[in-house]
Amino acid sequence: MSSGPLILDIKGNALDDGPGIRSVVFFKGCLLKCDWCHNPESISKDGEISFEAKECLGFDSCNSQSSTLCQESCPEQAIIINNSELIDRDKCTLCYQCVEACPSTAITQVGEMMSVDEICQRVLKYKSFYDSSGGGVTLSGGEPTLHMEFVSELLKKLKANGVHTLLQTCGLFPYDKFINLLYPWIDTIYFDLKLYDEDQHRQYCGASNDAILSNFSKLHQLYLEGGVEILARTPLVPGITDSESNLKAIAQFLKAQNVSRTELMTYNPIWQDKRDKLGYGLDVGSNESLSQWMSQSQVERCEHIFKEAGLQIV
Questions:
Q1: Domain 6-45+112-313, what architecture?
Q2: Contact at 8 Å (CB) between 289 and 56?
Q3: pTM score, whole prediction
Q4: By the 8 A CB rule, do 187 and 228 touch?
Q5: Assigned CATH for 48-110
Q6: Residues facing residue 262 across a β-bridge
Q7: What angle do CA 251, 254, 260 make, to 5 degrees?
Q8: What pLDDT digit, counting tens, does each position of 199-221 carry?
């Protein structure tokens, strides 16, 4: 039984990550570092600790004489009581003894090592639901393609058991390796196109989008020739990706690839709380709209740009 990358979570009974009832396997690690990442806990491929202050019982309810249980358990003395962040992350060695000692869910481990067989055992018990609903298993993250060999083995086992497979990807991967290791065992690809301008992509996502645009073009051409279904998706991020110039550029790019339909993912600000729990802090600058949900009129404005280009919104 082989081990592999860290798994953030396996979410069952998912209805928003592909057709039918699905299980979603969230991988840890991504080559992009998007400022607005909705799963900031998935960016690093390494383990982390999350602390949620409102769940902490505090010194009065959780103590062993002169220290709290988490404080007493930490061999590095990295737990600081009366500190809103609780954990001195420079001292923390991720031994997770504080997680085991915590009597509430205030301190949690982020990322668990799982083998392909362990993942399959978790998701295959719901196969009857996949079959009856037209569902299956979705691989998400983070970025699953960061772990090609492991994901290839997982996909092969899922397909051997007759499970529909869907990959959610940021599109930044070596194309030839992807075609050889993953493509033959994928039924559907959800492919993110965030920013068309390369300089903006570098600024907000931390990497060039040259390979991303190239990979999409190649994969969509394969789809037109009878290959794997691929759906382009654009996250709507206020003041960043939702500009008229960016959306028009993406729409024009899609039309040039003979794409007929696309998806726009509406923004939500819940990622900011996640960053706080991980000790990342938050700097949204003067873009106060990042702290708010998008209005329906904002979403409709974005949809109109794609519809004007002749694209169907799914």
A1: Alpha-Beta Barrel (3.20)
A2: no
A3: 0.93
A4: yes
A5: 3.30.70.20
A6: 232, 313
A7: 100
A8: 999 999 999 999 999 999 999 99
